[in-house]
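Example S7 (structure tokens).
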């Protein structure tokens, strides 16, 4: 890891005036205004002290604290003939700091905070920052505010203390402190009035072109916690910040397009934003761009480009990029193969972030003597260290993949099996699937269909889609387990609903043949269509899953099941009706006592279980037969079921051309209604099937309900008014 270093603007001794007013009306910082992460000159040092290295050493040895600080700065950055060396930098800065030079005290705080040239110690960092802050150094105050805002390494987050330090810096004219105070106010550090004031400050700063304020306002509208959520407005703020050079805002725009946050996801639109942010030096974007080049995700695979961006991200302190560089140097992908360089990158990742994969790779390298001298003691030590980290099982799996594919390590299926077994014993589903594949194909182990089934089954119980599909197929074919068509079809259906393409295709064939399921051409067509279509959303939206219809007369209880292969929910009284009751019951209708709360609850639970079991459900959100026009507001039951299960709704709008004949009036009996319908000269019923609606596009049942109501009202206006 190569941490980013902070330097302080030297500040002369300033008398801190109590009761000062925050300079909120001052203009935003210009492009060259000091920022926390930007290097700044040591203005404490007089110009005549900027001498040659030899002269500076002589002055420093005579105890000149400015010369000591300048030497520390030169060794920190490798300036003017001094070889970059953090240890010498710490030595000279510490001498100047002990003499009370604020600039040096701040830098010592950075050293201890980042663990550069010294053992990381946040208490020591706080000591040096406070010492500089007592001299009026605003950079030290900002650093202390940041520590308490984030809660670093043993120091709990404390917004109140953070606010106090930022306030002191703002009283001394720090524009950066002004912005950070606004950030705290928006998050409620001073209560609701403070939130309002914080938003005002940010808005004023944004209007004057402050990119951080623009980006922060974008965050607020994207999150929707302190202001009403408005993704479009958030994107406008980000785009404005981006035009003013903000790398962070460009990255956030990329994430919105990539993740599809309240807009349709579009990876291709996201890539240019990520590239812009990466080129502007944003570390997270550099890592992301490196990943897409390595994996060929939306761009041609290019290991050389990946190595370039990983190197930039690593230079900016992204430790996971060090691990990726280790892999590339180990495998010779995009760079010349260099085992020593690979070991160095793994070592950096292991030492700075305790990454179990990097630690395990070091264990393997020391065991084999690859890039480092063979040393079993170090090999065991790194293995033991990795075993104590979270993510250890995944790291074991990654090692196994290296052996299985020959990527960086010699291809060795027996070694791959051993590492997969380690990870599987930790309960890692993907490792269990790999073991199942090895036993099924007889690769690296003796072929055993029984063992293959057992490993697939373990992963399937953890909801691994491919494992569920394989369990289903093996049960259908009787491989390694006695044949069971019904159970096999059930496992295939589970995998299909999780988006496994092979399972979706297989399920379509099962419905086509009636194997393990009731034969159903509609279902067969639907699942086969999904499996063969190239679509990013794998939800089976083309199927009739949850049919949602209006209820203008009594005949829908017969007509809707005739149109759609679905079980409908109806009031319990229908069960006792003459012919209609017998037909409804035969169609598998679910009944509910609408006036009884417990019955409604039980019906809701039965509805969800029926959906999850693979059956379609039909509902009337009006809550019963309500007549010609829509009865609003709709009931939430249908929409709550959709939100909970993720199963799409297909609205169906019904209207009869002779609506007066079909409409059920309050004073009519069932026989009277049937007689009225039979006498009608026009018995034509029309229905319109809307496109399916995916519940994941809505935040809650209320918003989904409102959307469907709007659709129905539109058609009511067209056909019934």
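Recovered sequence:
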């Amino acid at each position: 890891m190569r941490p980013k270093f902070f330097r302080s603007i030297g500040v002369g001794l300033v008398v801190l005036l109590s009761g000062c007013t925050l300079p909120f009306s001052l203009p935003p910082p210009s492009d060259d205004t000091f920022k926390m992460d930007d290097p700044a000159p040591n203005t404490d040092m007089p110009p005549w002290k900027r001498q040659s290295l030899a002269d500076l050493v002589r002055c420093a040895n005579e105890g000149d604290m400015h010369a000591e600080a300048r030497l520390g700065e030169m060794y920190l950055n490798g300036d003017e003939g001094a070889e970059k060396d953090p240890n010498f930098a710490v030595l000279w800065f510490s001498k100047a700091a002990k003499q009370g030079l604020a600039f040096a005290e701040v830098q010592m705080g950075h050293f201890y905070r980042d663990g550069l040239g010294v053992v990381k110690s946040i208490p020591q960092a706080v000591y040096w920052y406070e010492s500089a802050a007592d001299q009026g150094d605003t950079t030290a105050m900002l650093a202390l505010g940041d520590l308490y805002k984030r809660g670093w390494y043993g120091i709990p987050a404390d917004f109140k203390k953070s606010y106090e330090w930022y306030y002191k810096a703002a009283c001394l004219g720090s524009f950066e402190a002004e912005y950070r105070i606004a950030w705290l106010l928006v998050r409620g550090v001073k209560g609701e009035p403070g939130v309002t004031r914080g938003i005002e400050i940010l808005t004023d700063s944004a209007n004057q072109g402050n990119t951080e304020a623009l980006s922060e306002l974008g965050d607020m509208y994207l999150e929707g916690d302190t202001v009403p959520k408005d993704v479009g407005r958030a994107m406008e703020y980000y785009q404005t910040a981006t035009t003013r050079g903000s790398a962070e805002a460009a990255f956030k725009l990329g994430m919105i397009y990539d993740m599809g946050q309240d807009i349709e996801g579009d990876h291709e639109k996201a890539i240019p934003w990520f590239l812009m942010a990466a080129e502007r030096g944003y570390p997270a974007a550099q890592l992301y761009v490196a990943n897409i080049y390595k994996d060929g995700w939306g761009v041609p695979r290019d290991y050389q480009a990946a190595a370039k961006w990983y190197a930039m991200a690593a230079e900016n302190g992204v430790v996971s990029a060090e691990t990726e560089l280790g892999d590339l140097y180990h495998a010779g992908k995009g760079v010349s193969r260099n085992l020593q360089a690979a070991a160095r990158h793994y070592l950096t990742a292991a030492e700075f972030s305790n990454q179990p994969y990097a630690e395990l790779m070091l264990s393997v390298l020391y065991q084999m003597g690859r890039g480092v001298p063979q040393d079993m003691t170090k090999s065991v030590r790194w293995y033991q260290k990795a075993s104590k980290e979270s993510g250890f099982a995944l790291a074991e799996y990654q090692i196994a993949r290296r052996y299985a594919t020959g990527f960086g390590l010699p291809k060795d299926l027996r070694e791959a099996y051993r590492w997969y077994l380690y990870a599987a014993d930790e309960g890692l589903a993907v490792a269990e699937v790999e073991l199942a594949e090895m036993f099924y194909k007889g690769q690296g182990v003796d072929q055993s269909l029984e063992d293959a089934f057992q490993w697939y089954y373990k992963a399937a119980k953890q909801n691994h889609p491919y494992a569920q599909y394989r369990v289903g197929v093996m049960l259908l074919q009787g491989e390694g387990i006695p044949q069971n068509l019904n159970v096999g079809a059930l496992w295939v259906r589970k995998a299909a609903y999780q988006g496994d393409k092979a399972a979706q295709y297989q399920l379509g064939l099962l419905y086509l043949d009636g194997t393990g399921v009731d034969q159903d051409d509609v279902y067969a067509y639907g699942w086969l269509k999904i499996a063969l279509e190239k679509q990013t959303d794998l939800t089976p939206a083309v199927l009739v899953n949850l049919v949602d219809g209006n209820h203008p007369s009594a005949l829908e209880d017969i007509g809707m099941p005739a149109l759609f292969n679905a079980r409908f929910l109806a009031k319990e009284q229908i069960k006792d009706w003459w012919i209609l009751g017998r037909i409804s019951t035969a169609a598998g209708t679910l009944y509910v006592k609408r006036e009884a709360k417990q019955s409604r609850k039980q019906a809701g639970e039965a509805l969800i279980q029926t959906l999850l079991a693979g059956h379609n459900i039909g509902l009337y959100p009006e809550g019963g037969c309500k007549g010609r026009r829509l009865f609003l507001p709709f009931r939430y039951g249908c929409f709550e079921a959709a939100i909970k299960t993720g199963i799409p709704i297909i609205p169906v709008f019904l209207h009869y051309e002779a609506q007066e004949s079909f409409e059920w009036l309050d004073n009519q009996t069932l026989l009277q209604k049937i007689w009225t319908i039979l006498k009608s000269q026009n018995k034509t019923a029309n229905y319109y099937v809307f496109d399916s609606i995916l519940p994941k596009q809505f935040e809650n049942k209320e918003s989904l309900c409102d959307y469907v109501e709007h659709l129905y009202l539109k058609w009511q206006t067209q056909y019934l008014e």
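Notes on this example. The longest helix spans residues 701-719.
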